[in-house]
Amino acid sequence: MAEIYPTLESEMLTKPHDESRQGEALSLPGDTDKTSAKKYYIETYGCQMNFNDSEVVAAILAEAGFTNTTDHTIADLILINTCSIRENAEQRVRLRLSQFNVLKRQKPELVVGVLGCMAERLKTKFLEEEHLVDIVVGPDAYRDISKLITSAEDGNRNVNVLLSREETYADINPVRLNSNGVSAFISITRGCDNMCSFCVVPFTRGRERSRPVESILNEARDLINRGYKEVTLLGQNVDSYKYTDEATGEHTNFAQLLAKTAELDTTLRVRFSTSHPKDMTDEVLYTIAKHPNICRYVHLPMQSGSSRILRLMNRTYDREWYLNRINAIKTIIPGCGISTDIMTGFCTETEEDHEQTLSIMDEVVYDYSYTFAYSERPGTLAERKYEDDIDEATKSRRLAEIVSKQRAISTISNKLDIGKTFEVLVEGESKKSKDFYCGRNTQNKMIVFPKHNLKKGDYVNIIVTGCTSATLLGDVV
Fold first, then answer.
1. Higher-scoring residue by pLDDT: 28, 173
2. Where are the alpha helices (DSSP H) in 28-122?
3. How far is residue 129's CA from residue 123's CA, in Å, rounded to a whole number?
4. Quick check: 41 and 35 in contact, CB under 8 A?
5. 365: left (phi over 0), alpha (psi -120 to 50) or beta
6. Can you give the pLDDT at residue 20?
7. Beta-carbon neighbour count of residue 406 at 10 Å?
8. CA 332/CA 42 separation, integer angstroms
């Protein structure tokens, strides 16, 4: 699943299915609140795939004549793009909808819609639970959204949650909402075939399918022409990408797509997220090592350090296999940044299983981790087959131990970078001070440094002078 950049000071270290950016209103640069066209407000929860989907929806709405607003009180259309990865995420959506319902009672002509994974999971039940919702649209039905809105304006309530084996929105150029003008995401796959026992994604996003190669490269070319300096290839399981051109018969796997993207422009940084250990091949690693503009960073979800728990999770690898892939990364790409996902409290997890997770953290020495406690999701294999038998207090205690260990490891990792110089892409102002910029090095570590006379989009060499457990601090060389 695609990642959000981490804040290691929080308990819930985040990624493509996380909650740290839940409820973020997306907008275009130069907000168009004062135009006479119908206005839409879109709020997005969860993973980076959802944020990318919101940009696809924005493009479809722009074609239909809507303009964007960040003020939901003046909107003609309110959309909430939802996440189902954990129960807490769904509860936040319901709370937000109750707040929008207050506005709808005052403004009956307002159209309120629910998009994304929660819409797909609940389908028509959403209309029963949230009786002021007008449209419910699943991740593969966004092309139909204009028609559904028109019908809702006539007083009808509509649901389209049909999943597709072909839809990739390959011909739609996403509107870059809340863009920094420097970095952008390009979706290369949709859906997932892995069927991890804890995960609802295959049921809410359907089977895996890959976009045509040329549509991906054309989107990257467009971003380059518009001045973007970095792209992240995005998918639920990005390195399982495979596409066959029906006209030529040419087969393209992820390593080959990665190389083609990097070769478009050697000054374009290329990242990707998220990988599955079973698909992290040596070919991918050698491709990263060969191209200097492919970032030296791999996010490789572990979930658990216990082979027994991994088997129950249906992860299709064990501890030994996972460590083999980690060793391959470190051997083929020396100095590569590595992060992971860690789930605690999965069904039947013992203290010994938990200790195995803590020990693998020591062995790998992750730069950072996205950590969370297991949350049983309806319809998954784990919900049908296993008992959620780890009490919340134990889950919380184990999660706290994992977070504490990761904070200590991250601090050590960051201290080792003090005195080193890194090339950094300036992404924008630091959140804590307008006198500082921030940007990431090739290992995906965030560095904060004085502005000097730099501007967004510049590449600059920064020497690291200090750190926290989450961030490097430095200055221009």
1. 173
2. 48-63, 87-106, 117-122
3. 11
4. no
5. left
6. 38
7. 26
8. 42
Residue extents of the structural domains in the chain: 24-160, 183-415, 421-476
Hunting for tokens 């994992």 — which residue is that? 402
Any alpha helices (H) in 388-458, and if so which ranges? 392-415
Question: If residue 221 lies in a helix (H) or strand (E), which one and from where to where?
Answer: helix 213-225
Burial grade of 73 (CB within 10 A; 0-12, 13-18, 19 or more): exposed
pLDDT tens string 338-395: 999 999 999 999 999 999 999 999 999 999 999 999 999 999 999 999 999 999 999 9
Among 189, 182, 180, 167, CA closest to 258: 189
Neighbouring-strand partners of residue 437: 429, 449
Q: How many residues does the chain have?
A: 477
- CATH number belonging to domain 24-160: 3.40.50.2300
Q: What is the DSSP string of 426-469?
A: EEEE-SS-TTEEEEE-TT--EEEEE-TT--TT-EEEEEEEEE-S
Query: Tell me, what's the pLDDT at 134?
Result: 94
Q: What is the C-alpha separation between 184 and 438, in angstroms, rounded?
A: 16
Torsion of CA 84, 5, 222, 59, to 10 degrees: 30
Q: Where are the beta strands (DSSP E) in 183-266?
A: 183-187, 189-190, 209-210, 230-234, 242-244, 251-253
How high is the pLDDT of residue 283?
98
* CATH number for the domain formed by residue range(s) 421-476: 2.40.50.140
- What letter does residue 339 receive in the DSSP assignment? E
Closest by CA to 226, choosing from 293, 262, 180, 172, is 180
The three-class DSSP label of residue 78 is strand
Q: 155-175: per-residue pLDDT in tens?
A: 999 999 999 999 999 999 999
pLDDT tens digits for range 190-234: 999 999 999 999 999 999 999 999 999 999 999 999 999 999 999
E strands present in 193-331 = 209-210, 230-234, 242-244, 251-253, 269-273, 297-299
Cα of first residue to Cα of last residue in the chain, in angstroms, is 36
Q: Tell the CATH superfamily of the 183-415 domain.
A: tm_1862 like domain (3.80.30.20)
In this structure, of 75-89, 182-196, 402-416, 419-433, the range with the lowest mean pLDDT score is 75-89
What DSSP character marks residue 345?
Answer: S
271 near 297, Cβ under 8 Å?
yes
Q: Fold identical between 24-160 and 421-476?
A: no
Cβ–Cβ under 8 Å, residues 357 and 401: no
Find tokens 């050698």 and name the residue: 286
- Which residues lie below 8 Å from residue 309, measured CB to CB, with a gap of 6+? 303, 346, 348, 349, 353
